[in-house]
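Summary for the lay section of the report: proteins are chains of building blocks that fold into shapes. Here we show the chain for Integrative conjugative element protein, RAQPRD family and then a coded description of the shape we predicted for it.
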Amino acid sequence: QASLDRAQALSAQDAGDGRFYFDYTRATGDLRAMKQGISQYLEPSRAQPRLPQGYTVSGQYRRERP
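The coded shape description reads as follows.
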């Protein structure tokens, strides 16, 4: 985001009448949408997985052969 802001400031100084231009407003909006989507994915508001009642996890899976 900071790099995009710097590039936008520099392009405003050199605003020519070129055929193409970079749409900073759209790029900023897309970055905002991606950040929001990533944060929603990483911080879900749904219940976390858990073991069914009556089950336990030992964590010890190595046994000696008889």
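Put simply, here is one thing we learned. The CA atoms of residues 40 and 46 lie 11 Å apart.
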